[in-house]
Amino acid sequence: MPSLRHTIAADLRAQITSGSRKAGERLPSEPRLASDYKVSTPTLRNALALLQAEGLIEKIHGNGNFVRHPLRRLTYTGGRLTPDTDLRVTIRTTNLRARGDLIPLLKVPSRTPLTEFLCLTHQGESPHSLTRIYVPRDLAPAELPWCPTGLAATQETVTARLPTPEEASTLRISSTQAVLAITRVSSDTAGRVLKAARLVLPGDRANALFTTHHANEERGTEG
């Protein structure tokens, strides 16, 4: 027998998918919904969390729960999100010093001056992805996008994990929704890290594509 939270989620899901609740529409307050369904507020919130994890609703703190506009699933390939024509990007620049895990990430001594670019993409009014780019301050460009000269190698690490509380709040996703976390480190021929980027892509709206080009070796035969 379905639990109360699954029954409530199924009813709200049907309202959304049928179009009786439109994209962008604000749902009734949580106390009102709890009263309508005759359940406790925690049970109601558990039901809403299921819909949030599915990408059907988003919670904007201080404003309530809203039916989410359908989000396009983008593809991450070659360090870029494509297609990106519908995305609006805001960039915030901060000067800081290397500490914690930034030290081994950028291979720099503690308190090395860095510049952080915080890039938040939106599709319409909904946050779509989050990127933090770290650059040694003596190399920092005036603006993005930027490709440093002298690049010799780029290494990418891809991890599926749960979002941090800050990431979940910024991207308006459930804390139980998996994200694709990509760390991209670019260095020169001497091994100096020129740029490190950390991308956080909610799993309901992104794919990652990696292509390997193989060089065919022609080997002579002995006669």
Distance between the termini: 75 Å
Mean pLDDT rating: 88
Shape: elongated
* Helix-and-strand structural type: alpha+beta
Count of helical regions: 5
The main pleated sheet reads as: 6 strands, antiparallel
Helix fraction by DSSP (H/I, runs of at least 4): 10-25%
Main sheet: strand order: 5-6-7-10-9-8
Strand content: 35-45%
What letter string, H or E per element, gives the SSE order?
HHHEEEEEHEEEHEEE
Report on the structure:
The chain starts with a helix and ends in a 15-residue tail after the last strand. It has helices at residues 4-18, 30-37, 41-53, 102-106, 165-171; strands spanning 57-60, 64-67, 74-77, 80-82, 87-97, 113-123, 126-136, 151-161, 179-188, 193-202, 206-208. It has five helices and eleven strands; from the N terminus they run αααβββββαβββαβββ. The protein is an alpha+beta fold. The strands form three sheets. The chain has a six-stranded antiparallel sheet, with helices on one face. α1 (4-18) crosses α3 (41-53) and α2 packs across α3 (41-53). The chain is elongated and about 65 Å long.
What is the gist of this entry?
The protein is an alpha+beta fold and 223 residues long.
Protein topology:
Elements: H1 4-18, H2 30-37, H3 41-53, E1 57-60, E2 64-67, E3 74-77, E4 80-82, E5 87-97, H4 102-106, E6 113-123, E7 126-136, E8 151-161, H5 165-171, E9 179-188, E10 193-202, E11 206-208
Helix pairs in contact: 1-3, 2-3
